Amino acid sequence: MDKMKKILTYGDFKLIIVFAYIVSLFYLALKINWTNAILFHLFVILLFFLVYNINELIYFIISPILFFYSPINEYLIRRYIRNKKFKINSISEVVIVLGGYDYTNVISWIKPNYLMSDIKIIVKFLTLSKKDFSFYFDAKIEDIIKIMSDKAAKEVFFVGHGDSHSFQLNNKEKIYYCDFNDKLKYGKEFIHQVHCGDKWGKSLIDYLVPDGNKKKCFFFRKFINSFDVEKWFKNKIREL
Question: Closest by alpha carbon to 70, among 100, 103, 112?
Answer without folding.
Answer: 112
